[in-house]
Design a protein that fits this description.
The complex is a heterodimer. Chain A has 27 helices and 22 strands. Classes of the chains: A alpha+beta, B mainly beta. At the A-B interface, helix 16, strand 21 and strand 22 of A face strand 4, strand 5 and strand 7 of B.
C-alpha cells in the first residue's frame, strides 16, 4: 500500500502525540498515581506505535512498543513510577522526536536504533516482578481485552448484514463442505485517522486464513473511508474463530473485534425482514445500494441516506437475537458530534485567499467611487454598496482569523524545558503559564518560540537564585517563572516574569566598561534603564560561568532582533532582589500595520506609525544650519531635518515660504524630522513586498495597495536617520 | 530563452511592436497582458525600472524595454500594454510595449539564430529572427532584457 500520501498527516499527528506525551509525563511526575494520566500516556504511545508501524518506520515502532510495555506494567500496578523511569521516558521522547525530524527531512527515520534506551526500558520492566516480561507480549492487545469483557453488550452488527441469493448459496455451499461461517464486527478506535488503511490491514490479515464473502459497508466504501467506526464481515474459514479474531485484533488502532459463528438458520431467517424491507423500499426509492449493504428496516421509514448503522428496529432484532445492538449504536451516534471537524490547509492557500479578499475590497472601493462619479446614486445602489461593504469587511476579518492560531503549540514545550533546566542547573523552579489560548498570526507563532525560550532560560539561569540563597533571603525555596500572554488592543503581549534576583545594574555597568562597550564616564551618566538596555548589545553576558544553558553572549541581542523582525518590541523591568519582567509586544498580524499617509510632490507615501514620535508645524525661519546641515530645535533637542522631496527626487509642491510639516521619527535614541508636503491621515495598510527585482532602493521597505487600487510605497524611517 | 527546439516542432510567440519594429516574446513566459495603468514610481532605481503596479492585489515591478534597449522613451498611447512575464529567476515582471499585435506559431526551421554582432547594441537582447507572413520578427531574449543592469 502506498502510504506516502499520509506522510504529512503522520508527521503532524506524531508531533501532537509527542507533545501530549511530554505534557502527560510531566504531570505524571507530579502525581505518579494518577490512573487517568497513565491511561492517556498508554493510549498516546499505542497510537504512535500503530502509526509508525503502518508507515513502515520499524525503529520508531520498536521504541514506542517498549515504551508502551512499560506503561502497560505501570497500569497493571506491577511497577511504580519513579524519577529514573521518568528520565528514561523523556529521553525516549527526545529520540522519537529525532526520528520525526529525520522523517520530515528525508522521509526516512534514520539508522539510530536507540538500543541503549530500549535496554533501559527493558531493565525497568524486568526490574518489576518477574512476570513483567510475560505480560509485555500481549501488552499491545491490552485495550482490546478490556473491552472484550464488554463484548456481550457490544454490538454484533454482522448479524444484520443482508445477504443476496448468490451469497447465501456460497455460504450454504461452504457449510456443506464443512467450513465454518463466521461473522465479524470490527471497531476502529475513535482517534484513528487512517481508518481506511486500518480496515485494509484487517482485510489483509483475515484473507490470510479465510475468504471474505460479504462486507458491510462494501469494500469500495471502506476503501473510500465511507464508514463510521464499525464495519462487519461475513467470512468462510477453516480456522477457529479465535484465530481469525486475533488476527484482526493484531492490527493496531483496532479497538475491538467481535466474532461469532453464523449458522445457516441465522442466515436464512435474516432473509425475511430483508424481503419485507425491500418491498417497503420500493415505495421510496428502488435505487438502494446493493443488498449487501445494510439498509434501514422499513418500519423506521427514515430517509435512505442515513441507513448505515442506525438503530435497528425490534423486527430486525427478532431474527438475530444474539446481540443487543441498541445501546451500543446509540452511544455511537451520540459520540459523533464531539469530534472536532477540522481541515488542514496549506498556508499558501490562505495567502492566496487573503490576496483575493484585498482585491475584492479594492474592487468594492472602485465601485463606490464609480457610483459617486457618475452621479447615479440611487438609494437602492447605495444600499447595496453598503451591504457589500459590510460583507467584504467581515470576509476580511474571517480570513484574518483563519490565519490565527493559539500560541499553545509553541509554549507547550516549555514546561518540559524548565524541568530539564531544573535538573541541569540544580535549582528548584516552577513554571506557571497563562493565556496559552491567545491567538497570533501563524507566521509569528512559528517564530516566537526561540526568543521565548531564550528568555525563559535566562530567567532560570541568571534570574533565579539557588535554593540556599533564596532561603536566606526569605523567599520560598522553589523559584517561580511566569509566562503570561494576553491580547492588548491590536497587540499581543507576552510576559516572562521571575521572582529571582533581578538585574544587578552595577554588575552590568562594570561588565560593559570592562568589555569596552561604554567608557567609565559614560557609565556615570547612564540611567538604570539605559544600563539595562545594554544587555541587548551583541556579545554581552553577565553570567560569570559559561554554561550550555546561557551565558555565551548570544541570547538577548538575538531575542531583540528576532522580535524586531516580527515588528514587535521587547522591554525589561527589573527590581534588584525581587525579580525581573520581560515584556514582548507583538502586532496581531505581520501583514497589516497602522501608517501615516503623506503627500510628497504628487506621490503618496506611508510611514509606519510605530516609528513616529510627533508631528510639528515649523516656520522656515526656525530652520538653522549646523555644519551645513539643516536642523530644528524642538523642546531643547536639536533634530536634523530630512527633506524627503530631495531624497525621493521629486519636486515639492509647496512654496519655500510656507510652514514646513515635519514628521518626527525615532530610531533608538536618535530623532529626525522628515519634511513632507501634506498629511493625508492615518490608515491601516496591508504590506506587500516590492519583490527582489527592486531591491536596490533601501529607503523603501515595501508597498501597499490603496483603496483606489493605486500603489503607495512605505518609507523605512530607520534608514533615513 | 533556452536553445530552440528540434526541427519540426513549433513555438508560439506573441508579436509586439516597439516603434516600427516587430518583436516576438515566447508565449510560455507570458502570464498576462494588461492595459496601461498608473505606474507608481520607485525612487533611486535604474531609469529603465518605471515603478510598480497593482495587479490583482500583487505589487509587480514594471520596466521599459525601450529605455533598456536604448530607444526613445515610451510614449503612452491607447494601444500601449504591459505584458506580465513570469520568469524563473526573477519572478514576475511587467514590460511596457507600444502594441500587442498577434500570436504567431513559428516552425522551428523558420527561426534563425542570430549571428552574434557585438557592435549592434540591440542585438544582444535578441536570440533569433523568425520568418512569417507578416515579415521578420526579432525574437527577444527575455533573460538578457530583464537581467542586465545598464
Amino acid at each position: 500500500m502506498d502510504v506516502s500520501q499520509y506522510l504529512e498527516i503522520f508527521l503532524d499527528e506524531t508531533n501532537e502525540h509527542l507533545q501530549n506525551l511530554n505534557t502527560q509525563i510531566l504531570s505524571l511526575e507530579q502525581d505518579p498515581e494518577n490512573m487517568d494520566t497513565i491511561n492517556e500516556i498508554f493510549r498516546a504511545a499505542h497510537s504512535l506505535k500503530g502509526m509508525a508501524g503502518t508507515m513502515g518506520y520499524k525503529r520508531m515502532q520498536t521504541l514506542t512498543h517498549d515504551m508502551e510495555n512499560v506503561f502497560s506494567e505501570v497500569r497493571n500496578g506491577n511497577i511504580k513510577v519513579n524519577a529514573d523511569m521518568i528520565d528514561v521516558l523523556f529521553q525516549c521522547l527526545d529520540a522519537l522526536e529525532e526520528y520525526n525530524t529525520n522523517i520530515r527531512e528525508s522521509s526516512d527515520e534514520g539508522t539510530n536504533d536507540n538500543g541503549a534506551l530500549i535496554k533501559r526500558l527493558n531493565v525497568i520492566m524486568n526490574g518489576s516482578e518477574g512476570e513483567g516480561s510475560d505480560k509485555a507480549a500481549p501488552a499491545a492487545q491490552e485495550p482490546t481485552k478490556e473491552s472484550a469483557q464488554a463484548a456481550s453488550a457490544d454490538t454484533q452488527m454482522f448479524r444484520q448484514i443482508k445477504l443476496n441469493e448468490n451469497q447465501q448459496n456460497v455460504l450454504q455451499e461452504a457449510d456443506r463442505q464443512g467450513k465454518n461461517v463466521y461473522g465479524l464486527t470490527v471497531k476502529v478506535q475513535e482517534s484513528c485517522i487512517l481508518k481506511a488503511a486500518r480496515a485494509f490491514l484487517v482485510f489483509k490479515a483475515i484473507e490470510e486464513t479465510s475468504e471474505i464473502i460479504v462486507s458491510d459497508p462494501s469494500s469500495q466504501d471502506i476503501e473510500d473511508e465511507k464508514f463510521d467506526l464499525h464495519f462487519s464481515l461475513i467470512i468462510v474459514s477453516e480456522e477457529e474463530l479465535d484465530k481469525v479474531v486475533n488476527a484482526a485484533k493484531s492490527v493496531s488502532e483496532i479497538e475491538d473485534v467481535v466474532g461469532g459463528v453464523l449458522n445457516m438458520n441465522d442466515v436464512n431467517s435474516a432473509k425475511e425482514p430483508d424481503e419485507e424491507e425491500e418491498q417497503a423500499a420500493e415505495h421510496q426509492e428502488a435505487a438502494q445500494p446493493a443488498p449487501a449493504v445494510q439498509t434501514q428496516p422499513a418500519a423506521e421509514a427514515a430517509p435512505p441516506a442515513e441507513t448505515v448503522q442506525t438503530q435497528p428496529t425490534p423486527q430486525d432484532q427478532a431474527p438475530a437475537p444474539a446481540a443487543a445492538p441498541a445501546p451500543a449504536a446509540k452511544k455511537n451516534t451520540a459520540n459523533k458530534p464531539v469530534v472536532n471537524r477540522t481541515v488542514r490547509v496549506d498556508i499558501e492557500k490562505l495567502d492566496t485567499l487573503m490576496n483575493l479578499v484585498s482585491e475584492l475590497i479594492i474592487a468594492k472601493n472602485s465601485l463606490v467611487s464609480a457610483s459617486t462619479m457618475s452621479g447615479n446614486s440611487s438609494p437602492a445602489v447605495n444600499e447595496q454598496i453598503e451591504y457589500l461593504e459590510s460583507v467584504t469587511t467581515s470576509l476580511h476579518e474571517s480570513v484574518m482569523k483563519v490565519r490565527m492560531v493559539p500560541i499553545e503549540s509553541t509554549v507547550n514545550k516549555f514546561p518540559r524545558m524548565v524541568r530539564d533546566l531544573q535538573k541541569k542547573l540544580g535549582k528548584k523552579m516552577e513554571l506557571y503559564m497563562s493565556g496559552e489560548e491567545t491567538e497570533l498570526d501563524r507566521t509569528v507563532v512559528d517564530q516566537i518560540g526561540d526568543p521565548l525560550m531564550h528568555l525563559l532560560r535566562n530567567s532560570a539561569d541568571h534570574g533565579l537564585e539557588s535554593a540556599e540563597v533564596r532561603k536566606e533571603r526569605g523567599k520560598p525555596e522553589v523559584g517561580s517563572i511566569f509566562l503570561d500572554a494576553y491580547q492588548d488592543g491590536n497587540n499581543v503581549v507576552i510576559e516572562v516574569r521571575d521572582d529571582g534576583n533581578g538585574i544587578d545594574t552595577k554588575a552590568v555597568k562594570n561588565k560593559a566598561i570592562e568589555r569596552g562597550v561604554i567608557t567609565p564616564e559614560q557609565g556615570e551618566n547612564m540611567s538604570e534603564k539605559e544600563i539595562i538596555d545594554l544587555l541587548f548589545n551583541a556579545g554581552f553576558s553577565t553570567a560569570k560561568v559559561v554554561s550550555d544553558v546561557s551565558g555565551r553572549g548570544v541570547g538577548l541581542d538575538v531575542v531583540k532582533s528576532m522580535i524586531e523582525s516580527l515588528s514587535g518590541e521587547v522591554e525589561v523591568k527589573s527590581k534588584l532582589g525581587e525579580g525581573s519582567t520581560w515584556t514582548i509586544r507583538l502586532p496581531l498580524t505581520l501583514a497589516i500595520i497602522q501608517a501615516l499617509m503623506v503627500d510628497i510632490g504628487n506621490e503618496k507615501y506611508a510611514i509606519s506609525l510605530g516609528s513616529i514620535q510627533t508631528i510639528e508645524d515649523i516656520s522656515p525661519a526656525d530652520v538653522k544650519l549646523v555644519q551645513a546641515k539643516e536642523v530644528i530645535q524642538l523642546r531643547d533637542l536639536v533634530i536634523p531635518l530630512v527633506r524627503l522631496c530631495d531624497i525621493l527626487d521629486i519636486p515639492s509642491k509647496k512654496n519655500p515660504e510656507d510652514n514646513l510639516v515635519v514628521v518626527i521619527v525615532k530610531k533608538g535614541d536618535k530623532l529626525a524630522g522628515l519634511v513632507v508636503d501634506e498629511l493625508i491621515g492615518q490608515q491601516e495598510i496591508v504590506i506587500k513586498s516590492l519583490g527582489k527585482y527592486i531591491s536596490k532602493c533601501k529607503i523603501i521597505s515595501g508597498a501597499t495597495v490603496l483603496g483606489d487600487g493605486e500603489v503607495a510605497l512605505i518609507l523605512d524611517a530607520n534608514t533615513l536617520i | 530563452m533556452e536553445e530552440l527546439k528540434a526541427v519540426g516542432e513549433t513555438t508560439q510567440f506573441i508579436v509586439i511592436k516597439l516603434g516600427e519594429e516587430q518583436y516576438g516574446i515566447d508565449i510560455k513566459y507570458i502570464d498576462n497582458i494588461v492595459r496601461m495603468q498608473h505606474i507608481t514610481r520607485v525612487p533611486k532605481v535604474d531609469a529603465y525600472l518605471k515603478g510598480v503596479i497593482n495587479l490583482r492585489g500583487e505589487v509587480i515591478p514594471v520596466m521599459s524595454i525601450r529605455i533598456k534597449m536604448g530607444l526613445e522613451p515610451d510614449v503612452e498611447t491607447k494601444s500601449s500594454r504591459i505584458i506580465i512575464l513570469k520568469l524563473e529567476q526573477h519572478g514576475t515582471i511587467g514590460v511596457i510595449v507600444d502594441e500587442v499585435k498577434e500570436v504567431v506559431t513559428l516552425e522551428n526551421e523558420n527561426i534563425e539564430k542570430m549571428a552574434y554582432d557585438s557592435k549592434d547594441e540591440k542585438a544582444s537582447f535578441l536570440c533569433g529572427v523568425g520568418k512569417c507572413e507578416g515579415g521578420l520578427i526579432s525574437l527577444l531574449d527575455l533573460n538578457s532584457v530583464v537581467l542586465e543592469g545598464i
